[in-house]
Structure formats: C-alpha cells, structure tokens
Design a protein that fits this description.
Layout: H1 25-75, H2 79-93, H3 97-106, H4 112-126, H5 155-159, H6 177-181
Helix pairs in contact: 3-4
Length: 182
C-alpha cells in the first residue's frame, strides 16, 4: 500500500472569497468595526482601571494613616510611665507639690475659700472617696387584717377591756436582728 499525499493549491483568500485586488469593502468595514468595538472596550477598561487605582490610592492612604496612628499608640507612654517622668521632673527641680500646697494653706493672705479647696485637693490624695452602694434585698412578711363590725356591738361590749397579748414572737419580722438577740 502506498500513501499518496496531495497538495491543494489554495486560490482563495483567508476570508473565504476570491478577489483580485485587495479586500472587499464589506470585509474592511467589518474589520474596522471590530477594531472600534475592541478599542471602545479597551478605553472603558482603561477608565475603570484609572478609577480603581484612584480608589486604591485613597484606601492605601487611609490604611497608612491608621498604621501610623497604631504605631504612635503603641509607642505612647503608659500612665505609670507618665507618672514616673513627672515625679522625676519634680525631683530634678527639687519640687514637692504636696509641700507647696501645704505652704499655701499656712499663708495668711490666701482666702478661706481657696484654703478649703486646697484642703479638699490634699484630702483626695490621702482619703478615698466614698461611693454609693446599691443594696437590693427581698423583704417578705405576713400581714393580718382584722375587721370589726361595730354596728352589731353594744356599748357594753365596747366598754369591756381588751386583753393584752404578750406573745411577741408572732411579730418577729418587724424586729431587727439586734432586737431579736436581746
């Protein structure tokens, strides 16, 4: 068996039409229209890309600002470090603020209102401020209500003395713990 390969001579152009000189007008129009569509799509994509880049730049700037703020916060001295620095500055200058306030209270030229304010300020360093305490308690008790119909009683019944009850144990819920123990 022999294998025969035939070559075809192509007398047609790539668009499937035969023509002698140049491309047909219809093909040229189609190719130009395709180029225009692609160019418009590319132009829109470029505009969208530029807008996205601007948005990205704004977001990156905000992120950079946040990073700088967080770095500053992490490097910020704690209240105890600030207090130590302030005490060191006072010690360096030989100043004791409490002693200075005490000297003002001894001064006879300082008005009484200012002395009171100074004493209050000094007291805040030595005495704790009292805070209100919320107390919640469930109180349970029993109440007996007796009604008397006086219309059916005679004057003689009303005049009779009432006997006293010495059994105070029934009324223990009204007594404090201290009174109960006595």
């Amino acid at each position: 068996m022999s294998l025969v390969v035939h070559r075809w001579i192509v007398d047609k152009k790539p668009d499937g039409r035969t023509y002698a000189a140049g491309k047909p007008k219809q093909v040229t129009k189609q190719q130009n229209a395709k180029r225009t569509r692609c160019h418009k799509k590319r132009m829109k994509a470029e505009v969208d890309m530029k807008a996205a880049q601007k948005d990205l730049a704004v977001v990156e700037k905000q992120l950079d600002t946040k990073k700088q703020f967080l770095e500053m916060m992490s490097k910020a001295p704690t209240p105890s470090e600030q207090r130590k620095a302030l005490l060191a500055m006072f010690a360096e200058r030989g100043i004791n603020p409490i002693e200075q306030l005490l000297e003002y209270t001894d001064d006879g030229n300082v008005p009484v209102k200012e002395k009171i304010a100074l004493w209050k300020e000094l007291a805040s360093y030595t005495q704790p401020k009292l805070k209100s305490v919320d107390v919640q308690q469930n109180i349970t008790g029993e109440m007996k209500i007796l009604t008397v119909d006086y219309s059916s009683l005679s004057k003689a019944d009303i005049a009779t003395p009432v006997e006293e009850v010495d059994n105070i144990e029934e009324y223990d819920e009204f007594l404090s713990e201290q009174d109960k123990n006595e």
